[in-house]
């Protein structure tokens, strides 16, 4: 059986269920960070079918010794990094991400030669992309809170298209 993203549904289900952990009493604990990342990845891949954009997950690059960097999601066009996305399943106050999250995005931008990275959070309401330029060099980090539910209160299966639209409207794609 094929999914809408062109992949096998069974393979996608196995990938998602690998994110579940079983606790000491045999119940599944859900790693919401991993599930959020996987959901956004699948939706973006679906949204970028038949477009000039390619979406990849967790590309590793050597950083220091045997340590590597691995952003959650990278969107490229013609093999050039356009947007780096780091999904965060947490709430932030007043557009103030943690210092460590900002440092992480700065390094991703620099290492992947990207002009724009974004911290993507779930939110009850849709917010416009808030972006701020890093002091040096010429790249930006944005913050976006996106509602994961559609108008009927169901999981939004068009979230990937909405993200692509936002990135295009703001000139990142």
From TrEMBL:
Q: Which Pfam families match?
A: McrBC
Q: Which domain of life is it from?
A: Bacteria
PANTHER family found in the cross-reference section: PROTEIN MCRC, TYPE IV METHYL-DIRECTED RESTRICTION ENZYME ECOKMCRBC
Q: What is this protein called?
A: Restriction endonuclease
User: Which source organism does the UniProt entry give?
Assistant: Aequorivita ciconiae
Taxonomic lineage is: Bacteria, Pseudomonadati, Bacteroidota, Flavobacteriia, Flavobacteriales
């Amino acid at each position: 059986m094929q999914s809408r993203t062109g992949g096998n549904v069974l393979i996608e289900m196995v990938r998602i269920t690998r994110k579940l952990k079983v606790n000491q009493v045999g119940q599944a604990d859900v790693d919401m960070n991993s599930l959020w990342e996987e959901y956004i990845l699948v939706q973006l891949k679906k949204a970028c079918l038949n477009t000039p954009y390619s979406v990849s997950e967790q590309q590793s690059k050597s950083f220091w010794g045997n340590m590597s960097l691995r952003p959650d999601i990278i969107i490229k066009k013609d093999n050039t990094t356009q947007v780096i996305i780091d999904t965060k399943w947490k709430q932030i106050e007043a557009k103030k991400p943690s210092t460590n999250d900002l440092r992480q995005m700065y390094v991703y931008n620099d290492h992947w030669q990207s002009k724009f990275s974004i911290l993507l959070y779930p939110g009850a309401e849709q917010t416009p992309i808030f972006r701020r330029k890093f002091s040096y060099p010429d790249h930006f980090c944005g913050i976006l809170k996106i509602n994961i539910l559609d108008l009927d209160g169901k999981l939004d299966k068009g979230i990937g298209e909405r993200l692509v639209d936002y990135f295009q409207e703001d000139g990142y794609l």
